[in-house]
Amino acid sequence: MTRRGSGVLGLMLALGSLRVDAGEPVRVLFVGNSFFYGAVSAAEQYRPASVQDLNGSGYGGVPAIFKRFTEEAGIETAVSLETVPGVGFDEHYDHRRDRLDAPWDDVVMSTYSTLDRDHPGDPTALLHYTPLLAQLFAQRNPHVRIHLNATWTRADQTYVAEGHWFGRPVEAMAEDVWAGYVAAQKAEPLVRDVVPTGTAWNRAFHEGIADTNPYDGIDAGKVDLWAIDHYHASVAGYYLEALVIFAAVTGRDPTSLGSEEGAAADLGIPKELAIRLQQIAAAEIKAH
Q: pLDDT exceeding 70 applies to what percent of the chain?
């Protein structure tokens, strides 16, 4: 599987960079949509009291799984999320800036899943709003670490005739989304790295861990990373997303979480699968 070089330096700089001052938690903010709050899965209501939902929606999701990982790793964090279903960066900047106005240490951001709802695959809006949000965060903390989270291929966009990526390989949408985020990183120096969540899914496909087409049934011995709508993630898909973000933000090896990792147990993910997903996340980060 070919890996692009863009984003390498940012991810390398992220390793070991998460501040762990005694008595002062690392302030981590997730900005995005349903791909963060865990829609259409049990992840949505996972440990909501462990994180602060700035919109008061009561979600836990990927931020809460990430929070559990940091607890297990001995990193004190204060994790918040500002998420709205079906939106891109424009919603957060144009209508919710007041909720983002704080001195965050790390900000993890995802825009709409196809980059643009009306023009799938077009990164124009991403390129416009990434600098605006980055500068907003940097005004409150000049040392903020901003991570763009490139999300996964949607099966409904690949295997359904109306989908923008219909007829193309299952990896194609994630690769195009990745390219859009890399372009945004190159255009805005305040962005530290691009988190390779979607290409981690592609790695799971290539290594035979995840099924590539949920519309024709799930192959024996493989996991479905998508939810029942073939759009959002299953608990396994969100778990993999949280692992890749954990590795990129903290610089910790996700395989160090091990077979007894608590979020996997809470979400009903078998130990053997949790280990394999940890290995996928570690390999994808290393590939950069």
A: 92
**108, 55 contact by CB (below 8 A):** no
**Start-to-end CA span in the chain (Å):** 12
Residue 206: partners with Cβ closer than 8 Å, 6 or more residues away: 1
| pLDDT at 201 exceeding the cut of 60 | yes
* DSSP type of residue 5: S
Cα 143 to the center of its chain, rounded Å: 21
| Predicted local confidence at residue 113, as pLDDT | 98
**Who contacts 180 (Cβ-Cβ below 8 Å, separation ≥6)?**
115, 121, 123, 126, 150
Domain range summary for the chain, segments of one domain joined by +: 22-287
CATH class of 22-287: alpha beta
| Cα–Cα distance, 270 to 146 (Å, whole number) | 32
Which of 181, 248, 241, 249 minimizes the C-alpha distance to 61?
A: 241
Q: Which residues contact 86 (CB under 8 A, 6 or more apart)?
A: 33, 34, 112, 117
DSSP-assigned letter for residue 223: B
pTM of the model: 0.94
Backbone angles phi and psi of 38, in degrees to 5? 85, 30
